[in-house]
Design a protein that fits this description.
alpha+beta; 7 helices
Length: 209
């Protein structure tokens, strides 16, 4: 399926286009990065993820300083550096403004209702970080702190950020989360969802073992 080396600029370009085409990063919103042996490759500021080319990807160090590239790195670069510093097992990060997911962040509603076995199995509960000024260090530190116990975090009135070993894994996680959000909204139109029982939840969690 992959025609590129994982953790490269081509890797970023492939999944960036997938994000945009799935409606998970409208216009110039969102940012994407991978950890490399030389630093962090991250999307440039103000660039549509669907229209990026390799010149729109900047190499920064783990303090956010530019090592290679003529463009300004994403303004959310410290969100990425903080998460990488905290989690050595995370090598890819996507910050998305997916409207369906962001609706939960903007309505101050947690994504935690057990209405789908897949959600219970892979997410269970998604923590929500407090609102802070976008691109601020306070936002980066507070949000990254939730990665001590979770791989995906809602950002109040902002969006969602997720990390994993590869961009493919992060993309699938966000796509699954969007499916949950869309399904939830659909159930509200139809009168509300029937929740999975505690006994059924326990059975689902046992599948992990």
């Amino acid at each position: 399926m992959e025609y590129f080396e994982v953790g490269t600029k081509k890797d970023i370009l492939y999944w960036s286009k997938r994000l945009y085409q799935k409606g998970m990063s409208p216009a110039t919103s969102g940012n994407i990065s991978v950890r490399t042996k030389d630093g962090i490759l991250i999307s440039a500021s103000g660039v549509c993820l669907n229209d990026m080319d390799e010149d729109d990807i900047v190499l920064i160090d783990f303090d956010g300083n530019v090592l290679e590239g003529k463009k300004k790195p994403s303004s959310e670069k410290f969100l990425h550096t903080q998460i990488y510093d905290l989690r050595e097992d995370i090598n890819a990060i996507i910050h998305s403004h997916c409207p369906y997911i962001t609706a939960f962040a903007c309505s101050n509603k947690l994504m935690n209702e057990p209405i789908m076995p897949e959600f219970v199995l892979y997410f269970d509960k998604i923590p929500k970080a407090k609102y802070y000024l976008p691109s601020s260090m306070q936002l980066a530190i507070d949000t990254a702190n939730y990665f001590k116990t979770s791989d995906t975090v809602l950002m109040q009135n902002h969006g969602v950020v997720s990390g994993a070993n590869t961009l493919q894994e992060v993309f699938y996680a966000l796509e699954s989360l969007r499916a949950y959000a869309e399904t939830y909204f659909g159930t509200q139109v139809l009168g509300g969802a029937k929740k999975i029982s505690k006994k059924q939840i326990k059975e689902i969690k046992n599948l992990k073992k």
